[in-house]
Amino acid sequence: MLTREQQLYHDYLVSERQYSPQTVKAYLTDIEEFLVFLENNGGFTTFNDVQSLDVRVYLNDLYNRVLARTTISRKISSLRMFYQFMVTNQFVGDNPFENVALRKHQNHLPEFFYETEMTALFDVAYQPDDALWQRNAALLEFLYATGARVTEIATLKISQLDFDQRLVLIHGKGNKDRYVPFGHFAAQSMREYLTTLRPELTAKKVHDVVFVNHRGEPITAAGITYILNELMKRSTLTGKIHPHMLRHTFATHLLNHGADMRTVQELLGHVNLSTTQMYTHVTRESLQKNYRSFFPRAKK
Fold first, then answer.
1. What are the counts of helices (DSSP H) followed by strands (DSSP E) for the chain?
2. In DSSP terms, which residues pair with 215 in a beta bridge?
3. Is 65 a catalytic residue?
4. What's CA 280's distance to the chain center, in Å?
């Protein structure tokens, strides 16, 4: 059960910030986890009684759980924002999360596929030995062609597709919409899926969601992850795949082929350019090619 402060914060996130239900849930979960930690470590009295020492102990606990730095950063950011809301509304006097600094870390490059690896995945996706191959091919094409998040693809509706202009309207995080172009292969595979397999699967269903499971129901993010990993197993590639790797691949390949950072930012739906700048890495092939082309002593 939410406290009065949590309920007011919930209403603020929904009505004023207009965050999506998933984002609101994530923020409230971060707050609830902090309260549970306090309860298990001396007890929680009021939000006003939380001190910087409590915050440091909690931060140390997060590190001991070997969470990803991005996860820890998000949790602390959530709590900092919550306390700022309470300070603004005079529920508490100070924000104990205001000056929390995370440990320094090495930057890790996002995982992505090389172009030859994407070709290997497409080769498997287009093999007609799977009854749902048309859906799987269209799904892989669209994830790669648009760089969309898995939740954006899972909730994609037919009405958001414009085949004449080859544009898709994507409903992004924070209720922010963006138009993203898609190419010939994505358009072709999507048309084939929508005109053949999907009508069969949804014969007894009434909804506008593009991608469906074998029962004709809207596919879930977990379902998409499962499909991609099945394609991975059948390919010549090793390891596991997560949908965000295709988003990373989309951005990486655009930049490697000359797209500017601002364009990639718009296509990905990033609010801040700094978020997009993690994609300034280049593939090994591009790195070697540029080195051989431009370094004066790289060639005889």
1. 14, 3
2. none
3. no
4. 18
Question: Domains in the chain, ordered, with CATH?
Answer: 4-88 (1.10.150), 115-287 (1.10.443.10)
Q: Is 257 marked active-site?
A: no
What's the CA gap between 258 and 260, in Å, rounded? Answer: 6
Which residue out of 80, 242, 244, 281 is catalytically annotated?
244
Closest CA to 213 of 237, 229, 197: 197
Residue 268 burial (10 A CB sphere; 0-12, 13-18, 19+): buried
pTM for this entry: 0.62
Closest alpha carbon to 221 in 118, 213, 171 = 213
Angle separating helix axes 21-40 and 4-15, nearest 10 degrees = 160
Q: Let me know if 37 is exposed, middle or buried by CB neighbors in 10 A (0-12, 13-18, 19+).
A: middle
pLDDT tens, residue order, the chain (300 aa): 788 899 999 999 999 989 899 899 999 999 999 999 888 887 778 898 888 888 888 888 888 887 777 888 889 999 999 999 999 999 999 999 988 888 765 555 678 888 889 999 999 999 998 999 999 999 999 999 999 999 999 999 999 999 999 999 999 888 889 999 999 999 999 999 999 999 999 999 999 999 999 999 999 999 999 999 999 999 988 888 888 899 999 988 888 888 888 888 889 988 777 777 766 655 455 655 666 666 565 555
Catalytic residue among 75, 247, 248, 253, which? 247
Max distance between CA atoms of the chain, in angstroms, equals: 73
Annotated active-site residue 244? The verdict is yes
